[in-house]
Design brief:
The protein is built from seven helices and eleven strands. The protein has about 240 residues and is an alpha/beta fold. It has a seven-stranded mixed β-sheet, sandwiched between helices. Strands 5-11 form a two-stranded antiparallel ribbon. The longest helix is centred in the last third of the chain and has 18 residues. The radius of gyration is 17 Å and the shape is globular. About 45% of the residues are buried.
């Protein structure tokens, strides 16, 4: 598999979780932080093929100290902007080739990366989704008859499920997404840039159904409790 870049968006304040440190550093039941678990999963799946870049902002000193071997991109306006701005920073500084990117607060089974590996190898732009019931705060999606994403936002009506925060932009689509992210407002999520590109027929985005894997974005204390319950089960099973 050719080398490619992995970006983890970890610049936000994460105020709803109420921690004094960045949310990706929240500890899980296996003793690792959310971010350490993500990076371990990436290395397990891809080894030296993956070059990891962290987009940092809030308390970046803690993140840089915890992961001294990573590459970094700095969103200096982390308190005023959202994930569209952070992803734009990372894509502008990325090397040639596709980019896999994750939200820095996603707890997921390592197997999901092996599951999407063939789609990455095919250099096909995709978003990972599930078909679970969702509430108003989740990023929802719809697809056309061939499985291509049609809409992708919190405002989607009658969505099929949730976009889980693991995504890939192909080498041929990267310039298009950069251009569309530049159109986004300060508080827009990166999904807005994807929607812009889809609406203009500038990019086709595959919906990869990962409902068979545990994936959870940790937004609040209840989410962290759910994640830790799953991690605890995994640790017990491994033992």
């Amino acid at each position: 598999m050719p080398a490619f870049q992995v970006v983890i968006l970890a610049a936000g304040l994460g105020t709803r979780l109420g921690l004094p440190s960045p949310k990706p550093l929240a500890l899980l039941a296996d003793g690792r932080s959310i971010l350490q678990r993500q990076i371990d999963n990436i290395w397990q799946a891809f080894g030296d093929d993956a070059r990891v870049t962290l987009v940092v902002g809030y308390r970046m000193d803690l993140l840089m100290e915890a992961f001294p071997d990573a590459l970094f991109a700095y969103n200096e306006r982390y308190g005023e902007t959202n994930t569209a701005a952070s992803l734009l920073k990372a894509l502008r500084s990325s090397s040639h080739g596709g980019v896999l990117w994750l939200n820095g607060d996603v707890v997921f089974d390592a197997g999901i990366l092996e599951f999407v590996r063939p789609v990455i190898e095919a250099d096909q732009t995709f978003v990972c989704v599930n078909t679970a019931p969702v509430d108003e705060e989740e990023i929802k999606y719809t697809v056309d008859g061939e499985g291509w994403v049609q809409t992708l936002s919190k405002q989607v009506a009658d969505g099929l499920g949730e976009a889980v925060g693991i995504n890939y932009i192909s080498s041929r689509d990267k310039a298009t997404l950069i251009a569309q992210l530049q159109r986004c407002g300060e508080q827009d999520y990166f999904e807005k840039g994807i929607e812009f590109a889809i609406a203009e027929d500038a990019m086709r985005v595959k919906a990869v159904d990962t409902s068979g894997f545990f994936v959870l974005e940790v937004d609040c204390a209840d989410d962290l409790e759910r994640a830790n319950a799953e991690v605890s089960r995994s640790v017990t099973s491994a033992a």
